[in-house]
């Protein structure tokens, strides 16, 4: 293993804080997800804690916890780690940037805690991925602005003139979410304006189909610019660093980045196919969704070809396994999504569990595996200790992979079964099945989905244990590893 002396002492204190929150909110979000899966298989579990345990109360906690707790914490841990390194700055030299970073973290934690309390209490705007009530929307803006100050402030004092690929995607994440979130959440607080209703209640500034279009302009691009561009920014740094290989193609990177930025922003309307929005909008969003295969596969192929001639690392490094399979799941999810957005396919797939399977093979495989691999890469460099156990990583990898396969395969079968049963008619044109018939038919697949979720959660608990033991009980490192992450057997 090649090693190099520490020539620069980076300040990883903020990255550590975001790693802690990533593990905490990842565990909470995934645990709630398992509870929700079990509730669908066994409905009596909805009532174990009264109104606070019902599916409708828990699901926003699950989605917000995974998107804005687990994923954003992972992205921001990566930013506060790699930002210093690729820009050749340190927070020791720039205490203002460190202060902004600490403000960013603690404001973010306050926001997440308030989000948990308010969502548990049933306070919501009832918009997918935008449930938070209006006072918390204002706090979201503060958190996002603080990250922007950190992001652009660091670039403003950089000693490396070239802006590395990862930072392109972080800039895109910041810019797109800032615009989309603000416009989607423009609302009028009813109590402050009219003196009626709860002080937390508000109504959207849009109505009807306009509200739906703006909502899914945001909703789909929350996936585009958190789950996608933010994670791409991470993998473009950690895969080359871990493998010791240069990125396969800079030109392919340019093509993939700019086409992703242009195309993805217009794909959200495919959530509204066969609705009251104008037909040309539905068609346009379907077309852009299909075109989206090109930049998405461009990125994934660029990642996989980075490993050309080095596939033996799949046997030697469990981190490479995570990163390569993450790229593979990205290819799968970004082919599946465009297929589902084709109108004829959407007629079968919409509102079925096939959509649920699509979301989760992307999040569990692409997002989860990328963040886990990035964390394992950062650990020895942040804490100056080798990874506690390579065996745990290997076992964790296979348990989580089996969990994902059980999850998405059961949901694919369940979804297509649902769609076919809902559309089936007898010789007189009457529906052949009642809705309850589909519910009964899908019970075995809901049980399999629950087992898959439990396996993934078990793997994540193993990950947390390995991380904590690496921080406290593993062998100390005198030198920073250059490429491969050092780990005990």
UniProtKB/TrEMBL annotation:
Listed pathway(s): Energy metabolism; oxidative phosphorylation
Top-level EC class as recorded in UniProt: translocase
GO biological process: electron transport coupled proton transport; oxidative phosphorylation; respiratory electron transport chain
Residues involved in heme b 2; high-spin binding: 358
Alphabetized InterPro entries for the sequence: Cyt_c_oxase-like_su1_dom, Cyt_c_oxase-like_su1_sf, Cyt_C_Oxase_1, Cyt_c_Oxase_su1_BS, Cyt_c_oxidase_cbb3_su1
DNA-binding recorded as keyword: no
UniProt cross-references to Gene3D superfamilies, sorted A to Z: Cytochrome c oxidase-like, subunit I domain (1.20.210.10)
Required cofactor names: Cu(2+); heme b; heme
Pfam families: COX1
UniProt binding sites for Cu cation: 220, 270-271
Keywords, ordered alphabetically: Cell membrane, Copper, Electron transport, Heme, Iron, Membrane, Metal-binding, Respiratory chain, Translocase, Transmembrane, Transmembrane helix, Transport
Keyword Ubl conjugation: no
Sites where the protein binds heme b 1; low-spin: 62, 360
Family: Belongs to the heme-copper respiratory oxidase family.
Protein's UniProt name: cytochrome-c oxidase
């Amino acid at each position: 293993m090649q090693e190099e002396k520490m020539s620069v002492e980076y300040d990883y204190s903020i990255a550590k804080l975001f790693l802690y929150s990533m593990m905490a909110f990842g565990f909470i979000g995934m645990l709630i997800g398992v509870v929700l899966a079990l509730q669908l298989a066994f409905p009596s579990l909805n009532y174990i804690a009264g109104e606070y345990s019902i599916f409708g109360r828990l699901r926003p906690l699950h989605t917000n916890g995974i998107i804005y707790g687990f994923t954003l914490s992972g992205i921001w841990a990566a930013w506060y780690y790699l930002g210093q390194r690729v820009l050749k700055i340190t927070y020791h030299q720039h205490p203002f940037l460190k202060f902004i970073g600490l403000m960013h973290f603690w404001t973010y934690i306050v926001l997440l805690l308030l989000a948990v309390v308010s969502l548990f209490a049933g306070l919501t705007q009832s918009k997918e991925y935008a449930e938070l009530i209006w006072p918390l929307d204002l706090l979201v803006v503060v958190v996002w602005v603080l990250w922007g100050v950190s992001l652009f402030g660091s670039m403003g004092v950089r000693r490396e003139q070239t802006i590395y690929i990862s930072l392109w995607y972080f800039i895109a994440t910041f810019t797109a979410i800032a615009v989309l979130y603000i416009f989607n959440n423009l609302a009028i607080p009813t109590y402050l304006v009219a003196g009626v209703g709860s002080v937390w209640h508000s109504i959207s500034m849009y109505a009807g189909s306009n509200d739906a279009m703006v909502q899914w302009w945001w909703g789909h691009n929350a996936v585009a610019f958190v789950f996608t561009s933010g994670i791409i920014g991470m993998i473009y740094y950690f895969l080359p660093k871990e493998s010791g290989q240069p990125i396969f193609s800079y030109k392919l990177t340019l093509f993939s980045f700019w086409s992703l930025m242009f195309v993805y922003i217009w794909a959200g309307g495919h959530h509204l196919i066969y609705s009251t929005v104008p037909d040309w909008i539905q068609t346009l969003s379907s077309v852009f969704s299909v075109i989206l295969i090109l930049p998405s596969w461009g990125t994934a192929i660029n990642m996989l070809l980075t490993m050309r001639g080095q596939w033996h690392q799949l046997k030697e490094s469990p981190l490479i396994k995570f990163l390569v399979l993450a790229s593979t799941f990205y290819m799968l999810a970004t082919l599946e999504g465009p297929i589902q957005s084709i109108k004829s396919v959407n007629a079968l797939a919409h509102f079925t569990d096939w959509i649920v399977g699509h979301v989760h093979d992307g999040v569990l495989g692409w997002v989860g595996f990328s963040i886990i691999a990035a964390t394992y890469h950062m650990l020895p460099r942040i804490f100056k200790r080798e990874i506690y156990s390579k065996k745990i990583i290997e076992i964790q990898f296979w348990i989580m992979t089996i969990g994902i396969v059980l999850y998405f395969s059961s949901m694919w079968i369940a979804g297509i079964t649902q769609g076919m049963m809902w559309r089936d008619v007898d010789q007189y044109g009457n529906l052949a099945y009642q809705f309850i018939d589909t519910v009964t038919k899908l019970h075995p697949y809901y049980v399999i989905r629950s087992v898959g979720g439990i396996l993934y959660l078990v793997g994540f608990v193993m990950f947390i244990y390995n991380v904590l033991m690496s921080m406290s009980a593993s062998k100390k490192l005198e030198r920073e590893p250059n490429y491969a992450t050092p780990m005990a057997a």
